[in-house]
Amino acid sequence: MTRKQALELAVQALAENKEAVQVLHTMIDELPLNRWTEAAIRDSVEQFILDNGRPPMNTDFKIRELPPHTVVKRRFGITLQQWLDQNYPSPKPSEEEIRAAVTERFVEDYKRLRPVSAEDYNARRTTGNRGWAFVARCNHTGRWRTLLKKLDLPVYDSRGAGDTPPLKVKVISDTDFRD
Asked: What angle separates helix 38-52 from helix 3-13, to the nearest 10 degrees?
């Protein structure tokens, strides 16, 4: 239980005493305290996890509720990132999870866009989706057509994409000419 949680329980228990509730709310607002003890640092990180559903990242320590980088370094003798890695490691996705997620987004985009080439896909892909070459590397290839074959995707051409009408050809043979 964090200090903030304990104070909130005390507020509920003392709901009848308005003055005590007001003081406890002031204490809640002032947490963490200015003096960063080891317990206060851990408490602030655990409260951050409760509030945000994830361990804090290095950049999150710029907000008021968490201690500055220098406090952590002085208190524990290691960098903030080292301390976070030791005490609050964040789960990292496996290579297979990354491959599956990237490939799934690629396939969705590919079927929606119906690109006629790798360049066409990259030019029109959804913002935030990786380029085809990254997806190909995740799928252990480096070629556009090989990637499409590996993922069992259809190959589109300009006619199939509706960009240009089919080419009409008229064949004239020399037997059609009469002198």
From this structure: 70
Contacts of 7 (CB under 8 A, 6+ apart): 24, 27, 28, 31
10 neighbors 24 (Cβ within 8 angstroms)? yes
String of b and e for 141-161 (b: at least 16 CB within 10 Å)? Answer: beebeebbeeeeeeebeeeee
Only one residue has tokens 């252990």, namely: 140
Residue with tokens 């080439």: 117
Q: Three-state SS for 74?
A: helix
d(CA 37, CA 57): 20
Mean pLDDT of the chain: 84
| Statement: the pTM of the whole predicted model exceeds 0.70 | no
Write out the two tokens for 53: 């559903």
Torsions phi, psi of 152, nearest 5? 55, 50
Task: Pull the structure tokens for residue 3.
Answer: 């200090």
Q: What is the model's pLDDT at position 162?
A: 44
- Whether 132 and 118 have beta carbons less than 8 Å apart is answered as yes
Three-class DSSP category at 163: coil
